[in-house]
Structures are given as structure tokens and as C-alpha cells.
From TrEMBL:
TonB-dependent receptor-like beta-barrel domain segment(s): 322-702
The keyword RNA-binding is assigned to this record: no
Location(s) in or outside the cell: Cell outer membrane
Signal peptide: 1-30
One Pfam short name: Plug
Listed name of the protein: TonB-dependent receptor
Amino acid sequence: MTTSRRSAPVPTRLAIAVALLLPAAAFAQATSQTHAHPTTLDRVQVTATPLGGDAEDLAHPVEVLYGDALEDRKSGTLGDTVSSLPGVQSGSFGTGVGRPIIRGQEGPRVQVLSGGIGSMDASTVSADHAVSIEPFLADQIEVLKGPANLLYGSGAIGGAVNVVDGRIAREVPDRPISGRAELRAANGNDERSGMFRLDGVSGDNLVLHVDGLIRNTGDFDIPGFAQVPEDHDHDHDHDHEHADEENAFGTLPNSSIRTRAGAVGATYFGERGHLGVAVSTYRTNYGLPDGAHVHAEEGGHDHDHDHDHDHEEEGHDEHGSVRIDMVQNRVDLKGGLYDPLPFLSALNVRAAYNDYEHVELEGDTPATRFTNKGTEARIEAVQKTFNGWDGAFGLQIGHVDFGAVGEEAFVPPSVTDTLGLFIVQEKEFGPVKLEFGGRHERVEIDPVANESRKFSASSLSGAAIWHLSDVFDLRFGADVSERAPTNEELFAAGPHIATRSIEIGDADLDTERGQRLEIGLHAHTDRVEFKAAVYQTQFKRFTYLTDTGIAEQGFPVRLWTQGDATFRGAEAEAKFHLLESDAGDFDLRVFGDVVRAELDGSGTRTVQFAVPHGDHAHNYETDIALGGDLPRIAPSRIGADINWTLGGWRANVGAVRYQKQDRVAALEEPSPGYTLVNAGVAWRVGEADGTQWELFLDGRNLTDEEARPHTSLLRDFAPLPGRTIAGGIRVYF
């Protein structure tokens, strides 16, 4: 199958993007001549780095969601919550799953963290596995764009998302008792949710914490039919007259969610250090929309289309709808010593033990059970300033015991051990700040039925901020980072029902290496805040899932393989403080991003592989393409929103246009573009240093547009939710 070619190559499009950014920079410069004193930026501390600091002072690209912006963007999944940030989208698999995608990279390349320690769930194993972190309980969410391997290991080669929940306190609160609570309800999914958080101080140095959440939703309303009709042209709207009579209309069946989460924590602060511990649980039961799961014996995928439209409803009647029942229990520990040695200002330790399990239920019958029991710990030694250099060095260890039992256990049980050493350093040279770092990591994966594999992964990173003036600064980044392959990439062997395919791993995969270059521009004045970046990452031995064009047991066969690849992209965001008046303050935010990902080779390569079939295997030989676009790359976007504040009132309205994605891999269909319109209003009363009450009303997808994200493996069976209006009350004290 040939893929369509575009009129403008990637370098040209990036040049156009940069050219579009220049007028905004020029406007910022003109504005600075009128307003000589640059605005004082909000300084939010980033906890994901051992040296701390605020987001604007870090040379590596970081975005932080907090305060009212986080409240207005919180969604039921982590990916949806952060998807409004430039360069960040969500990998949807129905309403219960949304994993962050950073600059086109996802899954095992984006590390999801809770308080600086990995989530240790099974979300990277399969697209239908949810992230085990509750966004509604977050204090702030930090998104590290670009390789974050130095601190978090090879699984962060594409970036990291750190959720800060405050269950272990960072400092003693000013008030003896503080907290917040929220009740909300929504139409479109019949949501009924409630959460609370309470922090108290006992004596002068013991901080106690408790939080909890309950969320119940029904099946989600959708615009039109759930499944794309078989004769549907992806480039046009649905023709409802030709839709299958059994195709659900107006509601996405089996999309309801039930979530429970909670934690208790205690932190002691002494003269020489601090120590905190938290015990938490996260439990969710969510449905996979009917059509996501079919069984090998049902067949129905004998063509080389990327998605299966010819599923058999009889199979669903026989096996029942599929739901995932997830339970994660976790213990976190954080502590630190102040000035432990003459050359150290702090010695910090973070550790977590995690017990994760989810069961895939067909009707009420357990079918497949996934477990993940793990321990992760990191010790960070923060040095005292030496000859102008600040820095930290440390050790990270991890042990994860993964299990899978049942008919959909396409990945074998395995034990993964990780050991990493890292160092970071920074220094200011007048108007220039430099950041350097390095990490060496050893990874061993020991599967039950295969020989173990050992990998070494080394990473080096450099970044700089050059303050051209009080208004402008340039950002530079360059790094070489490596990632060890994962258990599923090495040893997958069998039907992966969630992706409607048979996945075959390659036990001979090697460590992949990425080389990134990035340049950015930031500008800040009283009237304009602006930032933009262009980047390129060249991968050696990039690991990806390719379609062979062969069908087995009614499923397409896909191979984990490696090839050289290049990611190129650009992103920008500008905030204009338009007006301050008696009628309120008006701000305009505009943003956009684009990413292109292509294999660097040409021609084809012949591969041989075996597909398990009962107690034997079928052997195949086929040619796979060495060039072309990579699959399921996020489309380019452009968005804008207007924000208004007046006293205790605030409101916003905005829209994001997702462009058509026609840069597709072989055997992959293009996706049409769509526009999502959101709005919200809130009214807060009370004293700033006392109890405050807030009434709010939020609207998502107000035009009720049919949206099928290209990043979703389920896009032909489950569009995004339709128009949803949520309202409720919050209290802060």
C-alpha cells in the first residue's frame, strides 16, 4: 500500500511554523518598549528535579499545571487533563483510559510518576490499561517535555509527567487545619463525583493528611454512531443511512466508570531532617466499548485495514461486554537530612512499594489477570555550591514482578531489575545558565519462558538559557539518550485483543538511542507572555510495531521491530493580557503544535517470524518497509481561548482545531480533523485567608462534534464523548 505525499516537506513546514512565531515575538518586543518593567511571573516550584527551582528558570522544557488552571482542566484521566498543553495530547482507548502523549511519543517512552516515583502500573503494556493516578487529587502536575532519563530512567526517553498530591508534605502548612472539597454532577454521562482533602498540623512539626474520592458515571453520550460504518469514507462525514442497524447511536455502550481513591499520610519535620509516609489505594472499574474486544475464534479481520470493521456481534453476546476491574495499593516514603556532610546540603530518599492488579471481566467472568508488584527507590545527594556549581548525584534502584494469566496474556510473566547512577550540575555565567547531566543504567528482564536479557543505557544532556534582555531569552538543548526495550517489545507472542491484532516480539532487540536538538524563545512583558520551540530527535534502532499484512486466526499480525527514525516538531504558546477595566480583565491564549515522525530508511527488509497456534507455531516470511511515516502520530493542532476575571468571577471559552492526519504508515487509514469547543464559568466568595466557596459550570465539546483521535486504536469504534455539561461546588479552607 502506498501512502499519500504532502506538498510541503517537514523542514518547510517547520520553517513556516517558525515564521509564524516571529510576528508574536516582534509584538512582544514592541510592547516591551511601552512597558519598561517586565511582569512578575508566577513562580511555581518544580518538584521533579533534585535542585528544585521554578519552571521558568529551568533550561529543560517544563510545563506546570496548578491553581485555577488545573481546576478548570481536570478530567477523569491524566492524559485528558494535560492535553491542553502545547506538545501534549492524550492516547484514548475509551472513556476510562487516557495516557499522556508528549511530542508524538507515548507508552514506554513517557514515564508517569506519582510524587517523583514511577506509577508501577501496567499502563504501558496495553493501550486499554489505565494509568493508576487520580488527577482530581493532584496539587499540581509537572510535564517534562523531552528526555527525562537522567532522573527517571530509560522509560522517560520521551518525557515524564509527575503528579504532585501532597500526601507527604513538603513543608509545615501555615494553618493548623486546611483542605478542600468538591461535589460535581454532569449530564452526558450522568456523573456524580465527590472528593475531599484535609491537612492538619499536630504540635509544631507533625503534618497529617487524608484524602478521598468517589466517581460514578453512566455510559457516555456521543454524537452519531459508535462504530464507523463499513462503507464510510474517513475523509467525510458519516452517512447514517448506511449504518449497521446494530450499531449503537447516541450512547457509547459499556463506557461507564466507577472509581474510588484515597490516602492517609504523615510527615515529621525536625531540626536535622524530615520523614514522611503515605498509604494510598486506587480502584477503578471501567468498560471497554463494545467492539474493542473480539476473540480469536470470532475472526473477522481478513483484510489489510488498520482496524476491524467486520466484528461479529454474536461474539459479544456470547462472551459479554468487557470491563476492567483495577486495584492498586501503594506505600510511599520520603525523607531527607539537612547538611549531613560538610560538602552536602541535603540527602534525600524517595521510595515506594506498589501492589497492582487488574482483572478483565467478560460479563461477570474473570478472563485475564494482570499483576505488577514493584519497589522503586531513589537516593539524591544535593551538593553545596562549589565554585559556582550547584548539583546533585544519586542512585536509583527498581524491582518489578509482572504477571499475566488468562486467554489474553500475550506477554509472559517477567521480573525486571533496574540500577541507575546519575548526576546533574548547573551554573550561571552572567546572562547564561548552563545545565548538564549524565546517567548510566543497567536493566535486566528475566521472563518465565525465555532467556533473560541485560541492557546498558547511558544518557548525556546539556541545556542552556541565554538571557538576551529583561524580556527575551533563548533556550538550547542537546542530549543523547538511550532506552532499553520492554518486556512486551521483546517477548510478546500471541493475540492482543485490545489492539485487535497478534503481536510478536523480538528477543534480539537492542537498546535504542535518540539524539535531540532543540532551540526555544521565551518573551515576557506586562502585556505578553510568549514561548516557542523547534526540535528534532534522530533515533537509532527506534522500536515500533509494524503491520506485516498477514492475518492469522482472523487478526492482523504485527511485529515489534527496529529502524532509524526522525521526529521533528514545533510548538508555541502566547498569552496576551488584552484589557484591564472595571468590566474585568481579559486575557487571550493561543497555542499550536506539530510533530512529524518518519523512518529514515528506504526499500524493504525480509523478516522471518513464528506465530503461536495452539501447541505449535506457523512460520512466515514477509517484507517490511524501511521508510515512511510512523503509525498513530498525533496530528497538528491550533487553539485559542479567552479568559475573563472580575472579583470572584472567572470565565473562559476556547476551541482547539485538530487537523486531518494523512501522514500515515503503511496499512494505516488517515483520520479526519475536528474542532472541540469548551467553556466554563466559576464564582468564588470568601476571604483569601479563610474559607472560600466556589460554584462552577464547565462545558466540554459544546458543539457536540464527532471526534475520533488519530492516536486512539479504538477510534473507529468509540468517538470522544459528545456535549457534556458539569457543575458543582468547591470549598477551600
